[in-house]
């Protein structure tokens, strides 16, 4: 029986990946590097260490990661300050439904703890979560299963009783390897066939997860004895 939901954050709960892509593009232009925004498709689901390793491999050891990180971060927060951060469709409805039915909720995101908490609070959904594991709290980046194993431990639930919600191929592989059932809601990147073979369902939005919980995975009522 599914008793807990474990959520990725960027691209799944928050419509942040498009802002990241724009900020990378702008930072790249400042550094006279073309098409930096396109590199996001190769780093979805990776934590900072994983992204930095990708940049060194793709752009060479002389690529100034520290300067790029500073510039892109400034661009990102300027965009957020001007335009705001949005949640993905169905986020509020799913979190409200899950909380009302007694599911434990956790975040398993490759983003840093400081950034993640700030963003989740800014859109008013941080209070829904019982715990969170962040990219700077693990040794290995997705698709390694470490982050999902730790998220399950944090809410004291065995993986087989947890449902992971992901948007990236690396995240799907991470959750599946940790033993969770996985629903994928693609954002910037449509998962390849081999990734789709690992998931319980592919959904277009988080709205579609509620009837799956209600009718397909778990038929508990809000008043059921936990």
Explain the overall architecture:
It is globular, with a radius of gyration of 17 Å. It has helices at residues 17-30, 48-59, 65-83, 91-100, 113-122, 146-154, 169-177, 193-196, 209-217, and strands at residues 4-7, 104-108, 131-133, 162-166, 181-184, 201-202. Helices cover 42% and strands 10% of the residues. It folds into two domains: 4-15 and 86-217, Rossmann fold (3-Layer(aba) Sandwich), CATH 3.40.50; 17-83. Helix 1 packs across helix 3 (65-83).
Notable characteristics:
226 residues; 2 domains; Rossmann fold; 9 helices
Task: Quickly describe the structure.
By secondary structure, the chain is an alpha/beta fold. It contains nine helices and six strands.
At the first level of CATH, the class of the largest domain is Alpha Beta
Tell me the Rg in angstroms.
17 Å
The CATH topology of the largest domain turns out to be Rossmann fold
Q: Which consecutive residue ranges, at least 5 long each, have pLDDT under 50?
A: 219-226
Number of domains: 2
Largest sheet, strands/sense/barrel: 6 strands, parallel
If classified by CATH, what would the architecture of the largest domain be? 3-Layer(aba) Sandwich
Order of helices and strands: EHHHHEHEHEHEHEH
Give the proportion of residues in helices. 40-55%
Ordered list of secondary-structure elements with their pairings:
Layout: E1 4-7, H1 17-30, H2 48-59, H3 65-83, H4 91-100, E2 104-108, H5 113-122, E3 131-133, H6 146-154, E4 162-166, H7 169-177, E5 181-184, H8 193-196, E6 201-202, H9 209-217
Parallel strand pairs: 1-2, 1-4, 2-3, 4-5, 5-6
Helix pairs in contact: 1-3
């Amino acid at each position: 029986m599914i008793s807990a939901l474990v959520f990725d954050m960027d691209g799944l709960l928050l419509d942040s990946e498009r802002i990241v892509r724009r900020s990378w593009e702008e930072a790249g232009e400042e550094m006279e590097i073309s098409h930096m925004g396109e590199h996001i498709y190769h780093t979805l689901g990776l934590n900072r260490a994983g992204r930095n390793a990708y940049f060194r491999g793709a752009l060479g050891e002389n690529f100034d990661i520290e300067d790029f990180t500073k510039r892109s971060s400034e661009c990102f927060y300027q965009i957020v300050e001007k335009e705001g951060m949005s949640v993905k469709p169905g986020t509020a409805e799913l979190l409200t439904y899950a909380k009302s039915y007694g599911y434990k909720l956790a975040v398993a995101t490759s983003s840093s703890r400081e950034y993640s908490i700030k963003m989740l609070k800014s859109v008013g959904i941080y209070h829904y979560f019982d715990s969170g594991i962040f990219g700077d709290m693990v040794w290995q980046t997705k698709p390694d299963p470490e982050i999902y194993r730790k998220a399950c431990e944090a809410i004291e639930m065995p993986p087989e009783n947890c449902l992971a919600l992901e948007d990236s191929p690396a995240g799907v592989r991470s959750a599946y390897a940790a033993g969770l059932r996985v629903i994928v809601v693609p954002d910037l990147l449509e998962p390849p066939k081999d990734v789709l073979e690992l998931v319980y369902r592919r959904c277009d939005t988080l709205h579609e997860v509620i009837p799956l919980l209600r009718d397909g995975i778990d038929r508990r009522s809000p008043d059921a004895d936990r």
